[in-house]
From TrEMBL:
This is DFP domain-containing protein. Gene3D superfamilies: CoaB-like. PANTHER family: CORNICHON-RELATED. It comes from Hydatigena taeniaeformis (Feline tapeworm). GO terms for molecular function: catalytic activity. The lineage of its organism: Eukaryota, Metazoa, Spiralia, Lophotrochozoa, Platyhelminthes. InterPro entries: CoaB-like_sf (IPR035929). Transmembrane segments: none annotated. One of its GO terms (biological process) is coenzyme A biosynthetic process.
Length: 213
């Protein structure tokens, strides 16, 4: 945690407005995310309108650090006994790896860790028939302010933005905006998405200001 307290060692700043976090492992990501949320709750950071844009592609499964094997895995072994319960050899020399689910922290971020910030998460899928339903389910389950849904095979061309911030009136129901890139344009999808999220952030701040008067 000490290294996370020294921003120059792990972040990049752009015009004093954009902070990018670097990470390697799932544990690294979770620890830094938890600590940065803690820092956002200090002083006036959240009151100034923090936006958490969680675009990292984090695996759904992992081997916890405490269960990683200490030594190299060797081929040709038939023993069921290894230094880790997560990794087992079969009698035919096959290898079975047991993966644990990565802890879900999205709900904690928006409801406990940094409640004053706007939180935008991502939902990547490969099945066209599932992407919107799963994104909407994630929006309701984790109570983020917006979900960016996309398909692996078309992630450079299209995305859907799920939110309830239309015109400052969340009573209109859940919105599902389809963002696409015009084939003849040199504009990238990230440009379109960034502008739209920036607009929603302005709406979010206006709504928050109205409720705190």
């Amino acid at each position: 945690l000490t290294s996370v307290c020294r921003p120059s060692k792990f972040i990049f700043l752009s015009g004093d407005r954009l902070l990018l976090l670097d990470f390697t492992t799932v544990e690294d990501y979770l620890v830094k995310l938890r600590w940065i949320c803690f820092l956002f709750n200090q002083g006036d950071l959240c009151r100034q309108g923090t936006l958490l844009f969680l675009a990292a592609a984090v695996s759904d499964f992992f081997i916890p650090h405490d269960h990683l094997p200490q030594h190299k895995l060797h081929a040709g072994l038939t023993s069921n006994r290894t230094s880790s319960d997560n990794i087992q050899y079969g009698t035919d020399g096959s290898l079975t790896i047991h993966l644990s689910p990565v802890p879900k922290v999205l709900g904690l971020i928006s409801t406990k860790w940094v409640t004053s910030a706007m939180v935008v998460s991502f939902k990547l899928e490969t099945d066209t028939s599932l992407v919107l339903d799963r994104a909407k389910a994630a929006f309701k389950r984790y109570q983020t302010h917006a979900v960016v849904a996309n398909l692996l095979q078309t992630r450079k061309q299209e995305a859907w933005l799920i939110h309830e911030l239309d015109g400052g009136n969340s009573g209109t129901g859940l919105s599902s905006e389809h963002l696409t890139v015009v084939p003849s344009s040199s504009e990238e999808l990230e440009d379109i998405l960034t502008r739209r999220v920036a607009y929603l952030h302005t709406t979010f701040l206006a709504l928050r200001k109205g409720t705190t008067r």
